[in-house]
Amino acid sequence: MPARAFPVEAVRDLVGILRTLYAHAAAERGPDTRRLALIRKLATELQRATAMAAPHDPGTAPCERAIELAENAAARVAEVLEDLDVHVPAGWNPTTESLLRTASARVAGRSRKRGPTERELRWACGKNRR
Fold this sequence. Notes:
Layout: H1 8-26, H2 33-53, H3 61-75, H4 94-107, H5 118-125
């Protein structure tokens, strides 16, 4: 089995999303300090994992540990969305949840790529062309 490389780009993207969510949540009237602390903690854990993996080759123990840290932090991103039914800030919607889940899945190496539609398949086979 080939050694797993650290998902640098996926982690970077997720940190960027967390930064945006933090800025949005902090700008609210009466921001939820618990949510802000969680977002800050997860972004810090992801950045620490990136720094840990940077000097090491894929397959080495430090790189594997960094991947584990990043995956654990990514798995906890859903906690940012908890209690939304109690306090739903402006701009939070299912699209936000979907965005976070996709970014987290990329860190864990489970990106959800859309397959071609039936129409796209027919077109590729030449059955839909005029």
